[in-house]
Amino acid sequence: MRFVTFTRNASDPRPGVLVGPEKQPWVLDLRAAAERSEEIQFASTSMLDLIEGGERAIDTVRRIVERASAEGELSYPLGTVTLLAPVPEPPQMRDFSVFPGHIRNAPAGMQRIAARKQGDECKAKALKPLDDIPQVYRERPIYYITNRFSVSGHDADVTWPDYSGLMDFELEFGIFLSRGGRNIPASEARKHIFGYTVYNDFSARDTQFEEMQGMLGPAKGKSFDAGNVLGPWIVTSDEIPDPYSLVMRARVNGETWTDSDGSGMLHSFEEMIAYVSRGETLRAGEFFGSGTVGGGCGLELDRWLQHGDIVELEVERIGVLRNRVLCANGS
Question: Pick from 71, 107, 131, 142: most CB atoms within 10 A?
């Protein structure tokens, strides 16, 4: 199943599920359908409530979909609704870095920023990726915690903060946890994956470069309004038995900037869950980002976004996440 959070009047977010043909789906209003089918215990849920409801909630959704299949007034063409992030306020958001290409390429990109700040274009052009991956990335899944309130969804405009001049995207995908737990073995962690979504971790690279000198990770380089974009929906884990070789593409104004795939991750999502849950209780609905696929951002490609650019991130079997970038001053 593919789950969404949607609105029709900008003030009443509702959980929904896609029904009908895959290429021209409709959005079934789960709240309205639950009320119609007298599934009262489900009638006022959010997407987070649904996830927290576990298998019983999913079974209820299946019954609702079956009963509502002939009631067209409970469904809307996908193009007539506004999609929010599938979970507009996740309980927690963690973003990892597990793709070897990005780990090797990103330091050269940051050094290019430094060289250009010093006016040394020759040095900037001569910089090369790391020869090897730092051992710490092989030993454990490295991650940081980002702002769970700075979340937006498909087709949302992302207004760039006025303190940054280097606008960048990051091509990622990620998981929502289906249940909580502590000290979860990797062998059991698959049961904790509710589903998958596309993630654009927009990044203010010049600000990130300055902050990283403090050795505490990114802050305002990542945390600004609407900068964490999730969507367009959650595809449940049973629909994607093997998420580790999916084709991943990034397009800017229709031009392909990245054509890659999700193979070669240093650590699986199951291993991420096991690592983070060591001595720490996780909650249903938390989001784990994969980190950027190799070549999946302008920092690696030495290309930057401009005012009005349309960024599309596509992950096979999940979908296409689209956003427009706007400068705060309109230029």
Answer: 142
CB 292 within 8 A of CB 97: yes
Q: Which helix (H) or strand (E) holds 63?
A: helix 54-68
Nearest by Cα to 84 from 327, 321, 324, 252: 321
> Is the preceding omega at residue 232 within 30 degrees of 0, hence cis?
yes
Return the amino acid letter for 148: R
Round to whole Å and give the CA distance between 153 and 186. 30
Cβ atoms of 46 and 15 closer than 8 Å: yes
What is the spatial distance between Cα 29 and Cα 229, in angstroms, rounded to a whole number?
A: 22
Q: Are strands 228-236 and 151-152 parallel, antiparallel or unpaired?
A: parallel
Task: Tell me if the pTM is above 0.85.
Answer: yes
pLDDT tens-digit profile of 27-61? 999 998 988 887 766 766 899 999 999 999 999 99
Task: Spell out the domains of the chain, with CATH numbers in brackets.
Answer: 2-83 (no CATH), 93-327 (3.90.850.10)
Q: With beta carbons less than 8 A apart as the criterion, state whether 61 and 1 touch.
A: yes
Q: Report the DSSP beta bridge partners of residue 222.
A: none
Task: Give the N- to C-terminal CA distance of the chain in Å, as an integer.
Answer: 41
Tell whether the model's pLDDT for residue 73 goes beyond 90: no
Those residues with Cβ within 8 angstroms of residue 200's Cβ, 6 or more apart along the chain or in another chain: 169, 170, 171, 172, 228, 229, 311, 313, 321, 323
**Coil vs helix vs strand at 84:** coil
Burial label for 43, CB within 10 Å (0-12, 13-18, 19+), is: middle
**Cα–Cα distance list, 133 to 218, 231, 291 (Å):** 20, 30, 15
Consecutive H or E run containing 34: helix 30-36
Which two three-digit tokens encode residue 127? 């910089």
- CA 257: distance to chain centroid? 18
Token pair of 150 as six digits: 């700075």
Rounded alpha-carbon distances, angstroms, from residue 252 to 215, 225, 232, 247: 31, 21, 17, 17
What are the percentages of helix, strand and coil residues in the chain, rounded to 5?
30, 30, 40
